[in-house]
Amino acid sequence: MVSIAKVIVDVPTMQTNKPYDYLILAEFDEQIMPGMRVEVPFGQGARKVQGFVVEITQASNFKGELKAIANLMDLTAVLDEELLLLGREMARWTFSFQITCYQTMLPAMLRAKYEKKIKVIDEIPENLFFELFKGRNELTWDEATERGLMPQLLKLKKKELVELSYSVKNQAKTKKRRMIQSDLSFEQLEEEIIGLGKRAPKQSVLLRQLQSLNNESISTTDMNKKYGVSAAILREAENKKWLSFFEEEMYRDPFKHKEFKKTEPFVLNDTQEKALQPIMKAVKQHEKEVFLLKGVTGSGKTEIYLQTIAETLKNGQSALMLVPEIALTPQMVHSFKGRFGGAVAVLHSGLSIGEKYDEWRKIERQEAKVVVGARSSIFAPVKNIGVIIIDEEHEGTYKQDENPRYHAKDVAIWRADYHSCPVILGSATPSLESRARAYKKVYTLLELPERVNKKDLPVVEVIDMREEVKTGNRSNFSIVLQEKIRDRIAKKEQIVLLLNRRGYSSFVMCRDCGFVLPCPNCDISLTLHMDTKTMKCHYCGHEEAIPRICPSCNGHKIRYYGTGTQKIEEELHDIIPEARVIRMDVDTTRKKGAHEKLLSAFGNKEADILLGTQMIAKGLDFPNITLAGVLNADTGLGLPDFRASERTFQLLTQVSGRAGRAELKGEVIVQTFNPEHYSIQLAQKHDYDAFYQKEMLLRHRGNYPPFFFTILITTSHTEELQASKKMQEIVESIRPNLRPETILLGPTPKAVARVNNRYYYQTIIKYKHEPTLFKQLQELLSQSQKEMAKGLQIAIDSEPMHFI
DNA sequence: AGCACGCCGACT
DNA sequence: GTCGGCGTGCTC
């Protein structure tokens, strides 16, 4: 009986968003199982694609002739039953392809890579052979296109002298090392040592080491580095049959050179104990309860996480914890590795793809039982999950802004449901959505209202920058802030300065005619980058020289406006020359490990001031920081985004938490042009509850989440009319099927209507209850296939983070 | 995505 | 008449 595999193929179109049937050849019959990656022929020609086996059955409904699976790409399944099911369901609620979901779940190394080659299969004229193939037998597709050889090659193909070959490249390479094992017993080795001449000291060292191995093995590198035994000696020893070599798979350990000091659980205070109890109960009883742990900065949330995880490990279960990428600091890693040692796998963007793959394998083999990582770690192949923790749950980075547009929180709750275990959402400033759910008792609210060190939250002083301007201070630093910075430097204490760059960029403008340099491809102005001395477009990546003369009026009065971290650093240097500044932003942290290096330099007090963007607001904990400054608190407030106030409040609260973590008292300076804005005033008072009340009122008035669910539909096309027409059509087709209280905003052009020469139109749907809406939209997507093949793009984003 | 099929214009 | 343009539809 021939078995049949149902395969999701790597061809992202609606028609292929269902399994295709393939025959399983006898040679694979034993090993094949659902969740494995396979290489399958697809379409006419010789094209081969990667696919995922989702099921193995005995019969097929397909009317045509089945093709056979060409190759297995894995020895064991890379997706288990749970993840296969999750991918299928996620594709539905994120309006994306199943294949895209599966690819997202896996480390980059297991994602499909294709190799397209042109092979010589018959005699071709010698001159052509050398001209085209340079005497080789095959040519990569890329090279052929680059050298413009395709027309000639296609002619040869017609004559069947060459053929196209496709293959799926399996990049999943493990790192191996060469190991030595002794082939002689202790006594035999002893004899060899006695028999050695005095002039063979290295061999004697080797033999002594082999004796001390005690049936263990040692790597050739260790033997060389630690004992100075060279490869030549080892080779000779192999010839003498003293030892033999074998290959051992190893992990690329990103923390190879680090020691983690073992930490012990702290004794919890009463409030922590009170918060921990219900969680522990849920962990022990395997209840799928969602907790919202609301604790002020420094209230010891991490210790609660650690003790919860310890409990799940005790029960033989594993734990999954998400943190925002930028909070994945060495400090964070330390506290987890310190408590749980080798049982911890850490996944973050700073790892190489090889390192990520190895961490993934450690989890897959259940060697790591605790996973700490950013958004995509929610798909870690952990079995038997005992708890899922999402720290800083309000963070927008948990929502992926490309397909599949999933929210890690939704996936967490899905997986917790599957495993029947609790979820902990932790934050000092919960998202309104989560807080509201806790209010409605959908989540269980747990609160940690005080800091562990019993210190008061730092005093926040709000500086009205309008007054500064009036008194003639045109700089970005208020007089008060300048004084405080000098004071801290004198006291050898440290400072963090945050530049809130959201919605802000530096641009150049002509003072005479007001001309602002636009991007040729997008409807947006170019941003000045001092490091590369160019103008860049943040949307399409276009780059050009900084103009000296105004292209519009030929004037010479081109000036820089706006504020970047680079400019602030220079300004700071002018005002306070003695300040030693470390700047942290995308430009200085791009390189691998740069982030960590800068932070440890700051930790070693090599600088007085840490100046940066959002990335310095999260999680860092330096006892010597006593002053935190926000240079421009309100740049986000002007944005047409209903979450602007919430983000500002969260950011300010977070920054306040950076100051005065230890013995020294902290102080916070917030500079703003909107000192009376409620998000700034309430952040100053550390009053989350009042902010929640106020903001809920406004959300209610504006019919925004959490009172309404939202879906954002975007169409785009290189021709504006096509995009607008389709959007119009979509709105007309769904409106009649919606309830009267459902609100449609659109169609409207997007705020940046043209990006990369494509035109964007959007519609927002706000609804309370639309049981058929998802189905309708699914339908809409599948009906639009033809247009989508002709350059139209439709994106559907449920609960988007940004509406512009 | 990539390939074949099929239907129209310009060429040996 | 044939070569080759790309619009259309299918891939187990």
From TrEMBL:
GO cellular component: primosome complex
One annotated GO molecular function: ATP binding
Manner of cofactor binding, per the entry note: Binds 2 zinc ions per subunit.
EC number: 5.6.2.4
Reactions listed under catalytic activity: ATP + H2O = ADP + phosphate + H(+); Couples ATP hydrolysis with the unwinding of duplex DNA by translocating in the 3'-5' direction
Residues the entry annotates as binding Zn(2+) 2: 519, 522, 537, 540
Binding-site residues for Zn(2+) 1, renumbered to this chain: 510, 513, 550, 553
Helicase C-terminal domain residues: 545-699
Annotated signal peptide: none
Entry keywords, A to Z: ATP-binding, DNA replication, DNA-binding, Helicase, Hydrolase, Isomerase, Metal-binding, Nucleotide-binding, Primosome, Zinc
InterPro entries the UniProt entry points to: Helicase/UvrB_N, Helicase_ATP-bd, Helicase_C-like, P-loop_NTPase, PriA, PriA_3primeBD, PriA_3primeBD_sf, PriA_C
Residue span(s) of domain Helicase ATP-binding: 282-448
Keyword Iron-sulfur: no
Residues in coiled coil: none
CDD domains in UniProt: DEXHc_priA, SF2_C_priA
Homology family: Belongs to the helicase family. PriA subfamily.
NCBIfam families in UniProt: priA, PRK05580.1-3
Chain's role: Initiates the restart of stalled replication forks, which reloads the replicative helicase on sites other than the origin of replication. Recognizes and binds to abandoned replication forks and remodels them to uncover a helicase loading site. Promotes assembly of the primosome at these replication forks.
Name assigned to this protein: Replication restart protein PriA
Native organism: Carnobacterium iners
